[in-house]
Structures are given as structure tokens and as C-alpha cells.
Amino acid sequence: LTIMNMLIGVICEVVSAVASTEREQMKLAEVREKIMELMALGDEDGDQMISKDEFLRLLENNKAAAILSGVGVDVFNLVDFAGFFFDADDKVLTFADLMNLVLDMRGTNTATVKDVVDLRRFVKERFMEIEQLLRDPPHSCMSNEPRPN
């Protein structure tokens, strides 16, 4: 009887895990469909890429904002992070990049070790840039004139 109860418990756990995986796959399929819709809305020049300007204009679109909110993304935070996603003005996002971005920015996600490592790397790079600027300041910052008191 005890072994049978244990087997029933194991089977219930397996069914629960499979159901959870299936729900996530269905959600991913829905998000993929919505991202395709976003690409169609935002890709103004038809190159299958989203530039920073196209991305910002896309976020101003009510339908795009509704799509993003519908998949669990905070649109206001996405606007704030646009400069981070497009660290260079000429950078563009492919469909896969946009898909990953939206999946990563869902509010239901929890922080992972990878997220912490990425944050650490980002902060370290920025500190190294600041240290370099402090060691070798641009010539525009240098002046031979005395500072006013």
C-alpha cells in the first residue's frame, strides 16, 4: 500500500511537470505569434530588422503596447531600457533578438544565475570604461586656464 501511494505521488509529479511544460510551450507559441505581429507593425522599411527608431515608434503604437502588455511585458520599462538594448545607434534587432528580448522582459520571470552574471559583466565593463576616461580624459576636458574660485 505504501509503495502504491509513492507511485501515485510520482505519477502526479510527472503529470504536473508535463502540464507545466506544455503550458509554457503554448505561451511561447502565443508570444512568437504576437512578436511576428509586432515585427509587421514596427518594421517600417521592410528589412525584417527593428532599428532603435523603429523600436521607439513601435512602443508608441497602442496596438503594439497592448500586445506587449498581453504577453506580460511592462512597456514603460521597455522604453527605459531601449538605450541598453540598442547600445549603438546603428544596431538593429532581428526577429530572434526581439523574441528573446520580449521573453526576457516578461514580469513573470525570476532572476537566474545567468542574469546576475550578465549584470556583473555589464557593471564591470562600465566601470572599466569610466576608469579609462579618468586615466585618459578627453582633450576637451583639459584646459590650461586656471579654475575660478
Q: Which descriptors would you attach to this protein?
A:
single chain, two-stranded antiparallel sheet, 6 helices, mainly alpha, 149 residues
**Mean pLDDT across all amino acids:** 81
Number of helices: 6
Strand order of the largest sheet: 1-2
Rg over alpha carbons? 23 Å
The number of distinct β-strands equals: 2
Strand content: under 5%
Parts with pLDDT < 50 across at least 5 consecutive residues: none
Tertiary shape: flat
> Terminal Cα separation, in Å?
89 Å
What is the string of helix and strand elements? Answer: HEHHHEHH
Structural class: mainly alpha
Q: Give the helix proportion (percent range).
A: 55-70%
Sheet having the most strands: 2 strands, antiparallel
